[in-house]
Write a structure and sequence with these properties.
This protein has 342 residues and is an alpha/beta fold. 44% of the residues lie in helices and 13% in strands. The chain has 14 helices and 12 strands. The protein has an 8-stranded parallel β-barrel with strand order 4-5-6-7-8-9-10-11, surrounded by 6 helices. The chain starts with a helix and ends with a strand.
């Protein structure tokens, strides 16, 4: 129990203070360019960024991706993020709630519904915990704790391989995910943590009954690097560094999954750093763009810094739509204005 809280504190510190970003492998979005329209025939002030996801209305196609919880610093960060998510009608996920299951005393570090009564709010557990005594009861508990609209099950096999005392039994999980999807009263979203989801795996997850997928591709924070920073011995440290750039680029995941699942609610995360990245992801077929590290950096500073970040992201998204002559997100997705560079 205490080990889980210590790990959460370590993760926050490392992500805020150390260089744990991908360096060689990118999110793949730099391989695409929008066709500029010099005469948009639009009034910029009328551009509409609203959308819906899993039946919930959003003001902007942005997800504050799952990050943290379980410590007092994490509580401060989560509450700052939730306040701004409510203001702009953003979607928000929290970090893995396993620590709250193990130690109910830290449940309040996740309890952001008081700050954000109307947002699309996503609970979160590691899928592998279904092989370590977790089941429907624990999943219901974290959903109820958060008053969540859906449950994220995150997949992190590489991180668990490198993490000290990681949970490495992933056998039979697809059947357990299938059973959970049939029994849980809220939608189940499956996401990676930064190494991507292939089309073949997405197909298996869809057949298992998941309601949405977050590709969480390579190009952002490398959890292999994060765990390398926490290594207890030289082998773990070197293992993390060897696999620091492992994974499928986010852009590739979006394109490949959308090709086999045209209607699947799809989130693009993994190395998105600005509104231009989000716009590219949406033009490739994603419904929402998820960002973690930029929001973490801002929330560690202040609520005002989170507000400023969201205003910038909105301005960047709006500028893309204006300069490609698209008044809505749906038009952007169907306008063929994003070209892959040779």
């Amino acid at each position: 129990m205490r080990e889980t809280q210590t790990r959460k504190a370590d993760h926050l510190r490392i992500c805020l203070e150390e260089d744990v970003q991908f360096h060689k492998n990118t999110n793949g979005l730099e391989r695409y360019r929008f066709t500029h329209c010099c005469l948009p025939e639009l009034n910029r002030s009328e551009i509409d960024l609203t959308t819906t996801f899993l039946g919930k209305s959003l003001g902007v196609p942005l997800l504050i991706s799952s990050m943290t919880g379980g410590t007092q610093q994490a509580k401060t960060i989560n509450f700052r993020l939730a306040e701004i998510a409510q203001q702009y009608k953003l979607a928000m996920g929290v970090g893995s709630q396993r620590v709250a299951v193990e130690n109910p005393q830290v449940a309040d570090t996740f309890a952001v519904r008081s700050q954000a009564p109307d947002i699309l709010l996503l609970a979160n557990l590691g899928a592998v915990q279904l092989n370590y005594s977790y089941g429907l009861d624990e999943c219901l508990r974290v959903v109820e704790l958060l008053e969540a609209d859906a449950l994220i099950l995150h997949l992190n096999p590489l991180q668990e391989c490198i993490q000290p005392n990681g949970d490495i039994n992933f056998r039979g999980l697809i059947d357990k995910i299938h059973n959970l999807c049939n029994k849980l009263p809220v939608p189940v979203i499956v996401k990676e943590v930064g190494n991507g989801i292939s089309a073949a795996m997405a197909q298996k997850l869809i057949e298992a009954g998941v309601s949405a997928i977050d590709v969480a591709g390579a190009g952002g924070t490398s959890w292999a690097k994060v765990e390398s920073e926490r290594a207890l011995n030289e082998q773990q440290r070197r293992l993390g560094l060897t696999f620091a750039d492992w994974g499928l680029p986010t852009a590739e995941c979006i394109v490949d999954i959308r090709a086999i699942a045209p209607k699947l609610p799809l989130i693009a995360s993994g190395g998105l750093r600005n509104g231009l990245d989000v716009a590219k992801a949406i033009a490739l077929g994603a419904d929402l763009g998820g960002l973690a590290w930029p929001f973490l950096q801002a929330a560690a500073e202040s609520t005002e810094a989170v507000d400023a970040l969201v205003q910038l992201l909105i301005a960047e998204l709006t500028t893309v739509l204006f300069c490609t002559s698209n008044a809505t997100l749906a038009q952007l997705q169907h306008s063929n204005v994003l070209q892959k560079l040779a």
